[in-house]
Amino acid sequence: MKVDVLLGLQWGDEGKGKIVDVLAPGYDVVARFQGGPNAGHTLEFDGIKHVLHQIPSGIFREKTRNIIGNGVVLDPIIFKAEIEKLEKYNLNVKANLFISKKATLILPTHRLLDQAYEKAKGVNKIGSTLKGIGPSYQDKIGRQGLRVGDVLASSFKEKLKKLTDIHFEILKTHDIPFDWNALESQFLDAVSFLKQFKLIDSEYFINNELKSGSTILAEGAQGSLLDIDFGSYPFVTSSSTVTAGACTGLGVAPKHIGEVYGIFKAYSTRVGSGPFPTELLDEEGEKMRKEGNEFGSTTGRPRRCGWIDLPSLKYSIMINGVTQLLMMKADVLNIFPTIKICTKYKLGDGSITETVPYELVNENVQPIYTEVKGWHTSLEGITQNKMPAELTQYIELLEKALEVPITLISTGPDRKQTVHRKK
Ligand code: GDP
Ligand code: IMO
Ligand code: MG
Fold it and tell me: What is the value of pTM for the model shown?
């Protein structure tokens, strides 16, 4: 058996949570491989909306085992709050959730450092979710981080003191007020809570599952354009959001990777700072935001909106080895009589390119658009064989340009508003 990977091809919030939940009944295991509570993955069914931050989106499916992999940064405080929110739904979370001992812990001081570093950046701030992601990955790479497995050792408090002392020294130079006693007791309480869960060597677990023939879906967080190496650096997150990240974030060898589902919106959004070539700063963008309810699932911030961007999608498809494309939020474009598709960029020196330039941040990148007629009608109740002709044309145009089949169209936030498209 193989590990299939589902990940975002844009700047996050493509609808990963919804689709992992839709696909989960076909998988024995769902595993998050990177990121942390900066993610907000929304699922909707039976009239209820759920937002998950660290818990994999297979948790609502009774027969699916869920893993928080070693590549994740885990905040015990947010974890406790998430689990408590799920309690009223009578799920068997304790039986179905497994957490890697090698996942990195986010401490309350990481959140404070995130604030401090953002403040120090002034106008160049990243627009971080302020969940402590950057500072906790810094400590991991700096070889001084604490890991989930450390909570089981009697020396945990000592290790905590050692690391927080380092953080306090840095925080002294920034003007960030905090009450460590309160934060520490909240953290230690959440750590005790975490200890009740199955803390495992997840790389053995997942490889044993593979050997015994289980089907596994790796759930990405953020999006490829926020990847630490390939995203619009420095306006990125601090993890490997691409397919290769699933290998290192779970301990799965590249030869075990199967399908790569690349998920994208029928348009584009971005939350936080950084370049966004097709951004609409006018009324059209405002309409998109309103129609798509484009407000952050984690921070509530309004998302920046714009037309679909093919050069950046092609780039993400290349880096990830995408085998199937899933197009989300097609219904949001119902209101537009014409739809624009960015096919190329015009650079500051007048040259035209289909590739994503290194200097995306500083370069004056102007989108070059093709316009197509919109379907301009509701997509409620559509099926593969009963689609407005203009929607079919839009899909076929994208497939031709992106050279990967689009096998799923999403027409609303609910599980049921999903059209599987067979060739
Ligand atoms: P994720 O981070 O990739 O899981 O995406 P988010 O949950 O942050 O953002 C996607 C938002 O779009 C959520 O509010 C979803 O409920 C919603 N959504 C997902 N698919 C669709 C769709 O096809 N149409 C509409 N209108 N909303 C959708
Ligand atoms: P999901 O998984 C959209 C953005 C932040 C900021 C940058 C760095 O829901 O798609 P960080 O907190 O990681 O240091 O922030 O990345 N960002 C996201 N944007 N969706 C996400 O996750 C994001 N996680 C981080 O807005 O610009
Ligand atoms: Mg999200």
Answer: 0.97
